[in-house]
Structures are given as structure tokens and as C-alpha cells.
Automatic annotation (TrEMBL):
PROSITE patterns: MFS, SUGAR_TRANSPORT_1. Keywords: Cell membrane, Membrane, Symport, Transmembrane, Transmembrane helix, Transport. This is Putative proline/betaine transporter. InterPro entries: H+-coupled_symporters, MFS, MFS_dom, MFS_trans_sf, Sugar_transporter_CS. The chain crosses the membrane at residues 63-82, 88-111, 123-141, 187-211, 223-242, 277-298, 313-331, 343-361, 367-384, 405-429, 435-454. It is a multi-pass membrane protein. It comes from Crystallibacter crystallopoietes. Residues 51-460 form the Major facilitator superfamily (MFS) profile domain.
Length: 466
């Protein structure tokens, strides 16, 4: 059976051209659909390239900010908490980082509702605008020496705004790509999202290395740390412009024109898809802890806990990030070929077995060894990160896909991801053991392993429409 639609959700014509394709459905008598129709997005290469660019830049801006904040944590501590001892001040800086994540579940509900009820494009266009504006405002905050306690208070407020806006970005971009991708390449397309986050981290690492290499401590604290945050405004405006020029996804437009979009998608998700939601939260745990420990917290860990020079720490992380981006796309292809579950389970097993030995090798202080260990940890992480976006997007039907992804991803990140740098610092202080972050990672891997093992395989299966 073939069914083609040629009108968008708002009733406007949608010509079947390569840039504004018709929406096509087919179930071809497939008994595995159980009454569901399979969405076969009939779109051209030009449209898909624009979708990839639009999805890439939003996550890039978001994680560029998180990278800069994490990589310049020592400088930010000196600017906003100068009266505290270094470890306490650093802990307070990471606490602000964590608090901004606590609002992300709320943002997941809001952006999920907008994305499933009004449209993916609308949610993504507004989230990048708010995110980039908030990041730009961080650069304008006076330091503690100028306005006292109001400096960290303003930083906290802006970080909360960032957390709220960012909560719709990763989920929305992943759903956008999966719903536009060819059915047999959804893993590869969705891998663009973690690749964009790593690219944001990479640029943040490069800028941090450049600034710390060229400027002394006084210059960094006076004005140098502000420069990366100023870049958010132009990048965000470019991203919003690209997104406003795109059609919403074929899946969402078909849902809207048939009037099948639910009025309360989050409520529907909790009522009918709570099992998938719990599995998704558990599956995200390794991503949440691993991403922020290995790719964001690591330079601080190397410099503050292991005594490596700040510039060397940034250089090591930058090299690891370059290889990470390449591994991400390889993982996406592997998940398309072998299945999401096999790749995700492999990631958890490797972290359980190798994390503690890898962190032990970091303590040798040998720069080459440190770089190789970071490349290994990054490669292991890509098995999870490169597969997770397609896995989560495929778990939920179109009518609650944005909500299911956003709520599960942001809830796990709020509880365990944003708190990871703070928990790592706190665990080291409490145990006097530099390997404490490694054991924390192992615990996250065990929980993710159980969650993924209990879930169903989603690769090469039709996207559920209703």
C-alpha cells in the first residue's frame, strides 16, 4: 500500500521536489509493523545536507559553551570565587555547572511538548537562539572583584537559562536527523549529533590551549576567558537562520496533517511508554557520566589532580577529540550493520573492564601515554555516544519521539552528567584516591549495560508513526 501526502501540517502545499519533498508512506505488507505504517522519507540530497548542517551547528554551539566553561574552570574559579581556597572554589565552579543541568528535565518537558505538538523546527530554532544569547551574556558578567557576590549569582542565573534552552537541542537534532535519514542509515545520520558536540568541545579545547599559551594568568582573569563566550552570538544566529529555511520532518508533517499529533505528548509518553522511558534513562547514564568526565573534566583532572601542565592537558584532550570525531561516524555505521544493542553493550563491557587500568596509566605522567589513554577512552565512549541518538529516537513513536528522547536524555544528564565533574572532584577529596572518577564510570557502565540488555533492538526496523 502506498500513501502520499502533498500538504504540510498548516495546510500549505508541499511540492514533491528535492527541496520540498512529498511525504511518502509504505508498509509493503510487512507483518512486523503490527498495524503501524513505515515512514519512508522521500527527500533529496540537498535537503538532507541542509538538515545535517542545521542539526550540526546547534549542538556545536551548545557544547562549545560547555567545553569552554569546563576547560577554563580554574580561571573562572579565580574570577568568581577568589576568596575560596583552590579546591573549594573549583568545587563551587563545578557546582554551578551541575546546577544548570538540574533545570534540564523541566526543559525536556517544555521542548518535548513544543517539538511533538508544534514542530521539531520551531523547537530547534528557538532553543539555539536562547542558548547562544545566554552564552554571550556570560562574557559580559563583571567579576567578583567588581560586584561581589552578585557575580556568581548572575553566572548561576545565566547557567540555568542555558540549561533550559540546551535541553531541547540534542534530542531535537537527533529526532530531526533520524526522521529525515534513509531507513538503513539512521545510525550514521544520527551520529552527526555527537560529532557536532565533540567538534564544539574541540574548538573549546583549541581556544583554551591557545589562550593559556599566549596570555598570562592576570590577562586570562581580566579579559582572556571572556573571548570564547563572545563567539556564541554570531554562531547562534547562523544556526537559527539555517533552521528557519527548512521544512519540518516528513514524519511530523504527516502526523500533523492527519491530525494525529497528541495534545499532551509528555502525558501520553508517561502513560503508554514508561518502560521505554526507564530503559532510555538507564541507557543514557554511561553517556552522561562518560562524556563529561572524559571529554570535559579531563583537562582539569590532568592539571589539578595529576600535576600536568595546563597547556599540555588541553593539547592531550584536543588530540583525543580529533580521533573521537572520526570514531563517532564509524560507530554510527557499525550500529546500522550490527544493531544498536550489540554496540551499546560492547561499550558498557569495555568500560567495566578497562576504565580503572586506563586511569591508572594516566598517573604515569608520560605525555604520550596520557594521549594514547585518552584516545582509547574516547574510542570506547564513541561506541555509546555514536549509537545512542538513533537508539533513543527509534525507541519512541513519532507522536512522542521528541518528548521521550528529551525527557530521558535530560533527566539522566541532570542527575549524573552535569554533576560528573563535581562528583569526580568530590570523590577524590573524600577518598584521597585519584582513581575515584574511574570507579564512578564503571558504576555508570554497569547500570547502562542492564538497561540496554532489557530493551528491544531498533535498528533496521520501521519507525513507528503513531
Amino acid at each position: 500500500m502506498k500513501l502520499s501526502k502533498t500538504r504540510a501540517g498548516n495546510g500549505a502545499p508541499v511540492p514533491g521536489t528535492k527541496d520540498t519533498p512529498a511525504v511518502a508512506f509504505s508498509n509493503d505488507g510487512d507483518p512486523s509493523l503490527s498495524g503501524q505504517r513505515r515512514l519512508e522519507p522521500n527527500v533529496g540530497r540537498d535537503t538532507r545536507r541542509k538538515v545535517i548542517a542545521a542539526s550540526f551547528i546547534g549542538n556545536f554551539v551548545e557544547w562549545f559553551d560547555y567545553a569552554v566553561y569546563g576547560y577554563l574552570a580554574v580561571t573562572i574559579t579565580a574570577v568568581f570565587f577568589p576568596e575560596s581556597d583552590p579546591q573549594t572554589g573549583l568545587l563551587m565552579t563545578f557546582a554551578l555547572f551541575a546546577i544548570s543541568f538540574l533545570v534540564r528535565p523541566l526543559g525536556g518537558f517544555v521542548w518535548g511538548h513544543i517539538g511533538d505538538r508544534i514542530g521539531r523546527r520551531t523547537a530547534l530554532s528557538w532553543s539555539i537562539l536562547i542558548m547562544s544569547a545566554a552564552t554571550f551574556c556570560i562574557a559580559l558578567i563583571p567579576g567578583y572583584a567588581t560586584i561581589g557576590i552578585w557575580a556568581p549569582i548572575l553566572l548561576l542565573i545565566i547557567r540555568v537559562v542555558q540549561g533550559f534552552s540546551a535541553s531541547g537541542e540534542y534530542a531535537g537534532a537527533s529526532a530531526f536527523l533520524v526522521e529525515y535519514a534513509p531507513p538503513n542509515r539512521r545510525g550514521l545520520y544520527a551520529a552527526v549529533v555527537p560529532a557536532s558536540t565533540a567538534t564544539g568541545l574541540l574548538l573549546g579545547s583549541l581556544l583554551a590551549a591557545l589562550l593559556t599559551g599566549l596570555l598570562d594568568d592576570s590577562q586570562m582573569q581580566d579579559w582572556g576567558w571572556r573571548l570564547p563566550f563572545l563567539l556564541a552570538a554570531p554562531m547562534g544566529l547562523i544556526g537559527r537562520y539555517i533552521r528557519t529555511k527548512l521544512e519540518d520532518t516528513p514524519a511530523f508533517r504527516a502526523l500533523a496533517e492527519e491530525d494525529h499529533a497528541v495534545k499532551a505528548p509528555v502525558k501520553d509518553m508517561f502513560r503508554t511508554h514508561w518502560r521505554q522511558l526507564l530503559q532510555a534513562v538507564g541507557a543514557v547514564l554511561l553517556n552522561a557520566v562518560g562524556f563529561y568526565v572524559i571529554l570535559s573534566y579531563m583537562p582539569t583532572y590532568l592539571s589539578e589532580e595529576l600535576g600536568l601542565g595546563a597547556t599540555e592537558s588541553y593539547v592531550a584532550t584536543t588530540i583525543a577529540l580529533l580521533t573521537y570525531i572520526g570514531f563517532i561516524f564509524l560507530t554510527g555505521m557499525l550500529s546500522d550493520r550490527f544493531g544498536r544493542k550489540k554496540v551499546l553493550i560492547s561499550a558498557s563491557v569495555l568500560f567495566i573492564l578497562l576504565t580503572v587500568p586506563a586511569f591508572s596509566l594516566l598517573g604515569t605522567g608520560n605525555f604520550l601515554v596520557i594521549v594514547l589513554v585518552q584516545i582509547l577512552l574516547g574510542a570506547m565512549l564513541t561506541l555509546n555516544d555514536g549509537t545512542l541518538p538513533s537508539f533513543l529516537a527509534e525507541m519512541f513513536p513519532t507522536r512522542v519521539r521528541y518528548s521521550g528522547f528529551a525527557v530521558s536524555f535530560n533527566l539522566s544528564n541532570a542527575l549524573f552528567g552535569g554533576t560528573a565533574p563535581m562528583m569526580a572532584t568530590l570523590l577524590i577529596a573524600a577518598t584521597a584516591n585519584d582513581l575515584a572518577p574511574a570507579f564512578y564510570l564503571v558504576a555508570a557502565a554497569v547500570i547502562s549495560l542492564v538497561a540496554v540488555a532489557l530493551s528491544r533492538e531498533t535498528s533496521n526496523q520501521p519507525l513507528r508513526h503513531e
